[in-house]
Write a structure and sequence with these properties.
6-stranded parallel sheet, 506 residues, binds adenosine monophosphate, 3 domains, Rossmann fold, globular, alpha/beta
Length: 506
Amino acid sequence: MTFDELQLHDSLLRAVKAEGYTTPTPIQTKAIPHALAGKDVLGVAQTGTGKTAAFALPILQRLSAKAPAGGARPVRCLVLTPTRELAGQVGESFATYGKHLPLRHAVIFGGVGQTPQVQTLQRGVDVLVATPGRLLDLMEQGFVSLRSLEVFVLDEADRMLDMGFIHDVRKVIKALPQKRQTLFFSATMPPEIVDLSRSILTDPVRVEVTPVSSTAETVTQQVYFVEREQKRGLLTHLLKEGRIPRALVFTRTKHGANRVAKQLEGAGVHAAAIHGNKSQNARERALDDFRTGSIRVLVATDIAARGIDIDGLSHVINYDLPNVPEQYVHRIGRTGRAGASGTALSFCDGEERAFLRDIERTIRRSVPVVEDHPYRAGRPGPRPADFSTPAEKPERAEGGNRGGGRPASHARGSGHGGGNGGGGGHPSGQSRRRRGGRGGGRGEGRSEGNRMAQGGGGSGGNRGGSQSPRGQAPAQPRPAGVAAHAPAKAPEAPPPPPRRPSPKWF
Ligand code: AMP
């Protein structure tokens, strides 16, 4: 199918072509006709599939068909997103696709002063993109009315749940007119999200692409077995080989992100870290520097990287493997986007092998092992009780892992053992699958989400600095990657390469 066949207005087609899009992605092919017909849509799709255009294009067409009466400009479309980064990207998409249309949009989120946002709203906007907390604040203060709303988009619904925003989302929904079109997007469908979708969608069409368990065909995946304390050397080595033009590196913790970025800088590779302790400005600066190429490596935690969309990202590196297989799928989906090719490299230490097995089971394929590198880890075997150096001590996963750091061992199938820092019992299937000690369940998402989406109290806006999840201010330190040769310090004599279990077929 072509864009022309989607029955989009010429002004939208021109904008899309100017972006270099030649054919609609599967989610666009499937969702756009129904959305244009005014149907409610349940889209099961993750970022990277082109879902933003799948809802933005039909919305722009609908809104431009009927100009607001008498110069008034009520909000006619609301897009709710879990993070400010995603809100910004969705806002940019509306600006890009709607550049030939006389429509206005605004993006509002917490953690910054509300005055400019209020001023924009007062001038009138057709499309409002918002994170839930700031939206509720502004609604309560009477700056936003949703009485004239025609289309509601809930983006990344599962992430809203993970970040603890579901109650805010429900509150916003209560304020929407009953008669409306609703477009609902989620990468996964845990039971609470199924319930939510049922309660807000009317006779929806379900469209689904790239189930979360399937990794993009265009992403080449490889795993390196390496001891934890050798990961740093391996990363520097790979970056210095010169085959990696740009990389997004994932660490489990904020401190880990800082440390890796600093080490890379020390090794002569321009790098920066982004995570929830960074100020909004620092995060934006790091992202801009990465986009423009002035830094080569961006080191991020999962939550901070959520929604980040960098065109042409060649490599994703999992410095730490995630304990939630879906997280792996989300991470590697940052590369190989919209048909481009990409590479995902994962470092796996002895304690992460169980994570790797879970990932392989989820993606239904074995990840090829790179045997030929100077930091190969030894055959898995008994490990000392604690072999970490002070700098490599276990830490909490970003957002607060009350269960402590890495488990001493990972008994397969134990799932929620004593180390599950998130308070256990997370209603979503995803959290239930988290392994003890690492993830931190609900708490992980909440604190980061509070900072990112609703932010640190800003000037005004947030409710009086109470203990409200939306009222807490983040700290702001700032951290910092490599280039072409053997590591400065030779790796210790590498033990024999690990023996991989023979390929598994699921
Ligand atoms: P999204 O899933 O909405 O975050 O989009 C992921 C990326 O795909 C963005 O960089 C879009 O600009 C890009 N994109 C969306 N639709 C298309 C398309 N039809 N052809 C090529 N790139 C696209």
